[in-house]
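for the writeup, i need someone to sanity check this before i put it in the appendix. the sequnce is what the collaborator sent (i think, or maybe the updated version? ugh). structure was predicted straight from it, no edits. if anything looks off just tell me and ill rerun, i have time this weekend
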Amino acid sequence: MNVDSTGDGQPAPGSQWYDADAGPLVRPYAMTGGRTKPGPSNVRFDLIALVVVDDDPPGRAEESLLGPEHRALLTLCRAETQSVAELAADADLPIGVVRVLLGDLLEAGFVRVSRPVPPAQLPDERILREVIDGLRAL
């Protein structure tokens, strides 16, 4: 939710969603309908989880029913694969709000999420060093 101001702390002319004393008029809880958890399944989005637009998303009619913040996140995801943290920064929204909105998009079939590999499943450092040494020997 970018707020355009004139540089002197005053809102830009025609900016109906900003009040110089109160700040943004649309509060985060209004964007999520008061929800703090993403969807009924309570999916947890890691900050480094990657979000992409689904290969077969619902049609434009369903997308038009989404809120402006949902559509902004979809636009960002269409441009390139981004992490949850990047989406929050680019959309200028709190991370908690982005997680809830992404939960909505995930459950509606608009996006897919790739979760990071848990450290326990990563290759052992010893094996990686042996591979590097083997490649250097070539």
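Residues 1-5 have pLDDT under 50 and may be disordered. The helical segments are 28-31, 60-64, 68-79, 84-91, 95-108, 125-137.
thx in advance!!
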